[in-house]
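Most newcomers find our protein records easier to grasp once they have seen one. A learned vocabulary of local backbone shapes supplies the integers on the structure line. Here is such a record, shown just as it appears in the course material:
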Amino acid sequence: MALSEQKSVAIMGAGSYVAGRIAQNLKENEGYKIIALVRPTTDVEAISKIADAVEKGDLSDVSFVTEATKGCYAIINFINQLMPPCDTVLEQLENDLKPIVAGLEAALANKAKFIHTSGNFSIPTKGAGNVFTNELPTKPTGSTGKEEQWDTFEHEGGVAAVATLAEAKHRQDWAVQDFVDANPESMACVIIPAGVFGPSIGKKITFWDWAAAQFLEGKFVDFPHAFIHIDDIHKVYLAVLRDGKPGGRYAAYGESMTVRSFVARYVEACGVPMIEDGPKCSDHEAERVYVDEETRKLLGVTYSHTLESSIDDAVSNLRERNLLVVGAQ
């Protein structure tokens, strides 16, 4: 991309694992200028080496986000809305929705594309079958958004502990859709990633680097999931930046497998024995699969990595930087 044609992309939550690697790829391989938006307490040592500008402030403040993203072609939201988890769905939404709304409003004011990062655990809904795509499950007729639970959404993914987080994420997706419906000029859309693994910038590790260690200690559970390499999900973000449509929902699932299957291959790469017992989902649960063929076909995306072909390099990268959690003792 010639400098005269260079476009700026604002990254909300730029200090996170996924955001850092995506920002690096967008700048170094695609020629985009990067504007990093982070909270005042965020460690910006790594992202500062990549971003053209770092803006620290309240990411729930519409005025701050609007001013910081002026002139940007797009805003990508990577804020990890799920931590710390709250006790109820409404409490979680009170925490989660404000920065999403700020990004939506800022993008509308600045005539920019807005890409909201969701999560594939917002998709499995009781009664939906065993094949999960990008479909947004329905919401109750006449909903005000103040209901503690939606009777149209009952998370089914083998993990009761994440039910509150799953419904909160589901309702965040609806907040984006409702905004698009209410604002015809909005260019907001959603990317739905699965579990992401692969190299990072700085001292970041993935959630699944940590979860693998927790699984070996019997502190994590097994459930049907999907996993995608960070550089493959970058292809989806890049394609959506270029060709994403308002209200679009773009799944990026990679390979379907259980958490136990992922951990088994992960610890093998680490040179650590897999536990023989431990959590294991039922055969019926293991039949559930995530399918992103529609997104790949629509955007012309082809993945280059599999867990089998890429996890050894990912683990080596962590080991070289003294960030490996599994087998670190």
Observations:
- The radius of gyration is 19 Å.
- Residues 199 and 314 are 6 Å apart (CA to CA).
- The longest helix spans residues 89-109.
- The chain is about 40% helix and 15% strand.
